[in-house]
Amino acid sequence: MNTEIAIHPQLEHYGLTTANLDAMIDWYHKVLGMTVNHRSARPARAENGPPFSALAFISNDAVHHRLVFFEMPGLMADPDKRRHSGLQHVAFTYETLDDLLDTYVRLKGLGILPVWAADHGVGTSFYYLDPDQNNVELNVNNYLNDWTATEHMKTMPPIVAQIDPDKMIAARKAGASPWELHERALAGEFASPKPSDPRTRL
């Protein structure tokens, strides 16, 4: 048995409580392509059972579920949520910058817009709020491999350059390479004309 060295498991799934099960399933389907692999309601006759009334397991790959929702009617949004400790955001990554930009365009057509977008040096990220105001990051590795991005993070100071996705898309359509877009973003060329409210991304 290996009892001295930490074994590194992979993140498999996370769970969220919600009073808006249908809305959450619909949003994660539209944004991330997740589908329901199992959904059930807790029998009304089940006494001393769990506090939820229904649950749904959803995924967008071969794993049985990447996210599970526990429906708890009567839950209310916490107006002071960002002043409390808790999960700050969850991130999903794409293989290419074009995948991220194409997703932005598709979601914009559905009326789903990011609350913030930025180049962090190691990656480019768009942040969205789901129906329960959970912060969901969609990103791409600017270096295309984890090793180089990790070395960047170890050796470079933190970088955050706010970007306007539409400006970046226009430059991409004009022929700029993904790396050139990254460099131009850090130079401030794609800065949003209206700075975001930092409270929306905490």
Portion of residues in beta strands equals: 15-25%
Unreliable spans are none
CATH architecture term of the largest domain = Roll
The global form is globular
Distance between the termini: 42 Å
Return the CATH topology of the largest domain: 2,3-Dihydroxybiphenyl 1,2-Dioxygenase, domain 1
Q: What does the main sheet amount to?
A: 5 strands, mixed
Class based on secondary structure composition and strand pairing: alpha+beta
Please list the strands of the largest sheet in the order they lie side by side.
5-8-7-6-9
Q: How do the helices and strands follow one another from N- to C-terminus?
A: EHEEEEHEEEHEHH
Number of strands: 9
Total tally of structural domains = 2
What is the percent of helical residues? 25-40%
Mean pLDDT: 90
CATH class of the largest domain: Alpha Beta
User: Helical segment tally?
Assistant: 5
Rg over CA atoms: 19 Å
Task: Describe the structure in your own words.
By secondary structure, the chain is α+β, with helices and mostly antiparallel strands. The protein has 2 domains: 14-71, glyoxalase-related enzyme like fold; 89-201, 2,3-Dihydroxybiphenyl 1,2-Dioxygenase, domain 1 (Roll). The protein has 5 helices and 9 strands; from the N terminus they run βαββββαβββαβαα. It has a 5-stranded mixed β-sheet. The chain has a 4-stranded mixed β-sheet with strand order 1-4-3-2, covered by helices on one side. The termini are far apart.
